[in-house]
């Protein structure tokens, strides 16, 4: 975005400007954004800005989520909703191929080839921006690319909204993924537009930056004014204040090494006693990507389909080999999840699988807290080390 | 036992029999409820014994037997052995056949007392002191859970039988189904008591989709931690008695076998 002003970016109003943004995006895209439904701020298709959660906030704690009315008209001052963008980019179930048998018994395979919808994601928080980048490396990178994922991803228009009101379960600052969009993580092209919501005496508005030519084109069509210093300062301060308000943090240690050194920790028994093994943490996690496949046949026997669906390392069948599951105990399954998320993910993909969004903390019915578990493992490791040093 | 795939050569169709023990008939009616697929089912299987559909019955042996209901009488205990001996592949359908059903509440009470209270001539009643699943009496090839069973899962079991493959019937919790269909967790977001985290998936998570907690109609999942769930139910307003009653419905006997179940 080039403006005559010395301040980068532009400013749009929270009323006409945001309404126009949704309208412009909806012209040729399926717009997905936050909206209030069933006592939560969920992600769903929206057609106007009126459907966004104006004045809605959330109170978050481990195992607890409550929708509340805010004293102000803020639209994006909430976090850790029940879904993440993988709902759209990496859907819970999709067909991979079909096969038909003709009268002579010949099989004809047909790979699934349906043009994916062109999405516009409105309100992607910085932690989720990082999560999308993580899934890009897992599903879109490497020698075996998930074609359908890549096509959905390539067509998606991303409107990031910086976080100004983190929940009590958020810890993005300690994972280096928020609350601002930043540029230091190398995900420079991660968004098309980045917005920061500002509500002060000067009005309710968004400071907007374009991160791509497509973003610049969209911004050019919105009623906007050049970026001004007060708006930029207010936006920067709101994001800085959010970082200060972050209530949780991962222990500031090498988590990769901690996980590798904690495979026999007693803490796994402690957490296993509390864990329902219900799989909710993996389903709400914006980076958990595991799937299984199911082969569907019909009653004629001449038609079969292969479907891919979300799976979870908490499902006993996930590690079922001949004779039974490899990870039969809750201890082994929780350990698998955490050590992969924080540890072996680095070995596989060169980064952490955790972005600090806090969803696994909120949506765990019994409120198991990943930061607390990591801290307990660290404390146990430190104790072990101290004891070893005392023993000659 | 794994069924052999049935060749699609237009030859003899495998025979299907549907039997009922102590039950309400709801699960076998699920087969008639298949509507759009019913003709296809009848085209692939020779329906030889299905009293809810036709009074014309043919003798066994049957290639596939669907058995509904639990064993509650000495006569049923004998009959289920006959059914087994006449069935190549035996699938039990529903909470009664797989867990003893709601009538397994007798397992926790004095049946003599019931008999004396309910019947004018208790000496006419020949009944067992327990209601037990079919698998407690004879080997079962596959158990399909639910009160009632899910139509889609029944078709999957039949289709898998015809194809000679394992049915795709996951053993995980209802939470998986809620998350997949995008239902907001009723416990976390509303404080509603829900048995979903310990209940076998299969219904498609219907109740939470309508804002209600799961009732556990499909019985315990393959991986249950009741001591972790019960404090949540108590926190969300259930008394100890409420918790006991919630776990003592259609799958009372199987939940009672789970570690940490209230006595």
Produce the secondary structure layout.
The complex is a heterodimer of chains A (392) and B (263).
Chain A: E1 10-13, H1 16-26, E2 30-37, E3 40-45, E4 56-61, E5 64-69, H2 86-89, E6 93-101, E7 107-111, E8 119-124, H3 126-140, H4 147-155, E9 157-161, H5 172-175, E10 193-200, E11 203-210, H6 213-220, E12 225-226, H7 229-244, H8 255-260, H9 267-274, H10 280-284, E13 291-297, E14 303-310, E15 320-321, E16 324-325, H11 330-349, H12 359-362, H13 370-390
Parallel strand pairs in A: 2-8, 8-9, 9-10
Antiparallel strand pairs in A: 1-11, 1-12, 2-3, 4-5, 6-7, 6-14, 10-11, 13-14, 15-16
Chain B: E1 15-20, H1 26-32, H2 38-44, E2 46-50, E3 62-68, H3 74-86, E4 87-93, H4 94-99, H5 111-118, E5 142-144, H6 151-163, H7 174-181, H8 186-190, H9 206-209, H10 226-235, H11 240-247, H12 252-256
Parallel strand pairs in B: 1-2, 1-3, 3-4, 4-5
Pfam families (chain B): Oxidored_q6
Organism (chain B): Streptomyces varsoviensis
Protein name (chain B): Oxidoreductase
């Amino acid at each position: 975005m080039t403006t005559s002003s010395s301040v980068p970016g532009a400013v749009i109003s929270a009323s006409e400007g945001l309404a126009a943004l949704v309208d412009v995006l909806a012209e040729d895209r399926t717009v997905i954004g936050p909206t209030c439904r069933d006592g939560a701020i969920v992600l769903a298709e929206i057609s106007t800005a009126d459907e966004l959660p104006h004045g809605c906030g959330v109170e978050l704690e481990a195992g607890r989520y409550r929708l509340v009315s805010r004293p102000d008209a803020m639209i994006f001052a909430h976090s850790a909703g029940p879904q993440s963008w993988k709902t759209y980019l990496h859907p819970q179930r999709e067909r991979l191929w079909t096969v038909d048998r003709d009268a002579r018994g010949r099989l004809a395979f047909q790979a699934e080839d349906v043009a994916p919808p062109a999405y516009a994601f409105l309100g992607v928080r910085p932690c989720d921006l990082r999560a999308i980048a993580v899934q890009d490396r897992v599903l879109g990178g490497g020698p075996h690319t998930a074609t359908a994922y890549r096509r959905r991803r390539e067509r998606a228009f991303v409107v990031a909204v910086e976080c100004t009101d983190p929940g009590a379960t958020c810890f993005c600052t300690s994972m280096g993924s928020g609350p601002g969009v930043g540029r230091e993580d190398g995900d420079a092209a991660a968004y098309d537009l980045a917005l920061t919501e500002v509500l002060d005496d000067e009005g309710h508005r968004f400071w907007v930056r374009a991160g791509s030519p497509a973003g610049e084109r969209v911004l050019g069509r919105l009623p906007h004014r050049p970026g001004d210093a007060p708006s930029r300062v207010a936006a920067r301060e709101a994001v800085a204040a959010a970082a200060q308000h972050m209530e949780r943090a991962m222990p500031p240690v090498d988590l990769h090494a901690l996980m590798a050194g904690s495979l026999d920790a007693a803490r796994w028994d402690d957490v296993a006693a509390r864990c329902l093994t219900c799989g909710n943490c993996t389903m709400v996690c914006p980076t958990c990507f595991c799937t299984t496949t199911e082969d569907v046949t019909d009653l004629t026997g001449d038609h079969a389909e292969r479907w891919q669906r979300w799976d979870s390392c908490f499902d006993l069948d996930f590690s079922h080999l001949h004779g039974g599951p490899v990870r039969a105990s809750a201890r082994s399954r929780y350990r698998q999840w955490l050590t992969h998320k924080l540890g072996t993910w680095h070995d596989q993909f060169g980064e952490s699988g955790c972005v600090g969004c806090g969803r696994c903390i909120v949506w765990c019915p019994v409120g198991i807290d990943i930061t607390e578990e990591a801290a307990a493992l660290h404390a146990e490791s430190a104790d072990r080390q101290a004891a070893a040093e005392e023993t000659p | 036992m794994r069924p052999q795939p049935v060749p699609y050569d237009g030859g003899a169709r495998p025979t299907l029999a549907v039997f009922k023990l102590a039950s309400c008939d709801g699960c076998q009616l699920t087969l008639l409820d298949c509507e759009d697929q019913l003709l296809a089912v009848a085209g692939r299987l020779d329906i030889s014994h299905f009293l809810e559909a036709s009074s014309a019955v043919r003798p066994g042996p049957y290639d596939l037997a669907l058995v509904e209901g639990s064993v509650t009488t000495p006569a049923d205990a004998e009959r289920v052995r006959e059914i087994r001996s006449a069935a190549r592949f035996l699938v039990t359908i529903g909470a009664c056949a797989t867990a003893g059903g709601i009538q397994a509440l007798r397992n926790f009470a004095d049946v003599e007392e019931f008999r004396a209270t309910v019947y004018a001539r208790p000496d006419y009643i020949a009944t067992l002191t327990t209601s037990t699943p079919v698998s407690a009496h004879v080997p079962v090839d596959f158990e399909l859970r639910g009160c009632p069973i899910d139509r889609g899962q029944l078709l999957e079991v039949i289709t898998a039988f015809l194809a000679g493959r394992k049915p795709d019937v996951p053993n995980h919790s209802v939470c998986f189904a809620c998350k997949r269909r995008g239902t907001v967790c009723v416990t976390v977001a509303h404080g509603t008591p829900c048995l979903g985290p310990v209940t076998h998936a299969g219904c498609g998570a219907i109740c939470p989709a309508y804002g209600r907690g799961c009732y556990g109609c499909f019985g315990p999942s393959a991986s249950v931690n009741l001591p972790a769930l019960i404090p949540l139910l108590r926190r969300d307003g259930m008394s100890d008695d409420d918790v006991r009653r919630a776990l003592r419905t259609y799958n009372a006997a199987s939940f009672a076998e789970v570690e940490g179940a209230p006595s």
